[in-house]
Amino acid sequence: MGYNQRYSFRADSWALPWLIVIAAVALGWAGRASAQEPVSVPLGGAASLALDAAQYGSVSGLSAVQASQELAVQEASVPVTDALAVEFADRLAGLSVGHRPFRIDVLLTGDAPVADRVVPLAGQPVAIRFRTGAYATHHQLVVALALHQTEIRASLTQPPGIGVDPRIGALVVMVGQADLRAEPVEAMRDRIARIAGVPVKIATLETPDIDLADLQGGMRLVGVDPANGRRYACTSGFVVRRGVESAIVTAAHCPDDLSWIDAAGGAHPLRYAGQWGWGYQDVQVNVADHGLPPVFWSDTAKTVSRTVTGARARASTRAGDIVCHRGERTGYSCAEVWMPDFAPAGDLCGGGCTPTWVAVRGPTCRSGDSGGPVFLGGTAFGIVKGGSYRGDGGCAFYYYMSVDFLPDGWVLATG
Questions:
Q1: Domain coordinates in residue numbering, the chain
Q2: pLDDT for position 230
Q3: Please, which of 163, 206, 320, 391 could form a disulfide with 339 given CB 3.0 to 4.6 Å?
Q4: pLDDT value at position 232?
């Protein structure tokens, strides 16, 4: 099945660990800052989800009521898909969700049919649709990517981004234009499929993902890079805790020693606790001198803060899930998860990245969004690492590190 398919996708790309102009978290210094700084009462989960429904409705064409119902059903469906993954563990090739109306799609190996089902969720019937005949299980696809990533990278002139698309049960290999000029797409697809031993689709990229180091944002974190003496600015992500310590997370390549700058220009030092930027992580922790509330700015203007009420594990994140992010460059937007198992192109993780990043189909991303929170309602999903542009300059997709991979000992602060 997957051997006879081609997927074409042109993009410029970016990856964003260095200067992280991230969506700012409400750091709890409001009492120290000037009255010009935006301050709001943090919203709870239901009110936060209503804001995301309105945002999702604006890009999907759904009314606010329809979008709100879609997101309510989406969140209610997580235990159902978790159970399906266990029930069909030996045959599961892919699991995804769809919208308008909300549905659950399950792709299985083998030919033995499974009858479609209907389950009631959030006050409406939801169809569970089963398709059979996939070549490899999801587990086999992930293992094939991990085992053969080095060989696939070595066979191309530019290290590609590679992910598992659960909708089709195949690896998606995103190659550069130089490789497309050197080899016909069908021959490349079949050659890489022989290397990996699983179905492959080819996606095209104009350039490999690159790290960025520019821009500066909202509630500023500043520091000096000792390697070049330059002063960089970053913004903050979610609040984390370790025992009595309270800290913020940001992307790993921010300068180690940071200070938070309030609206009056006052500097509040944040003690560097460490950074983790290899394989599956892109995260840095800086500790505050006092307790921080578990809240973050979510809107473009940074006038609405939200309380973090929980987290979504990567294993429970489905292709098709609607998630939102806030970037200092692009503001607030909501979009659809593309691939929950994605390894970015290039050498952005101290070498090749593991297939543990989650790719999201825009609609907005830009250099400067790195490190920003990815969320839905009050649920934290992860921290933006990077993304890719289409040839017209629009955002093709971005990818984030799951909160599963916060550094050992540090836990997400929730209210």
A1: 64-134, 143-205
A2: 67
A3: 163
A4: 58
CA angle 256, 259, 260 (to 5 degrees): 130
Residue 267 pairs in a beta bridge with: 261
Whole-number average pLDDT of the chain: 83
Decide: 62 and 257 in contact? Cβ < 8 Å.
no
CA max distance for the chain = 67
Q: How far apart are CA 322 and CA 334, in angstroms?
A: 7
Fold for the domain defined by 143-205 = GMP Synthetase; Chain A, domain 3 (3.30.300)
Residue 209: the pLDDT is 39
Tokens of 401: 């590190």
Which residue in the block uniquely carries the two structure tokens 């940074």? Answer: 302
What class has domain 64-134?
Answer: alpha beta
Indicate the pTM of the whole model.
0.86
Q: How many residues does the chain have?
A: 415
Number of helices followed by number of strands (H, E) in the chain: 6, 25
116 Cβ partners below 8 Å, 6+ apart? 127, 128, 129, 130
Structure tokens at 196: 């990996």
What does the pLDDT look like over 198-245, one tens digit per residue?
A: 999 998 755 333 332 222 222 445 555 666 666 655 567 899 999 999
29/363 Cα distance (integer angstroms): 32
Query: Could you say which residues of the chain have pLDDT below 70?
Result: 1-41, 205-235, 253, 261-263, 368
With left for phi above 0 and alpha for psi between -120 and 50, is residue 276 left, alpha or beta?
beta
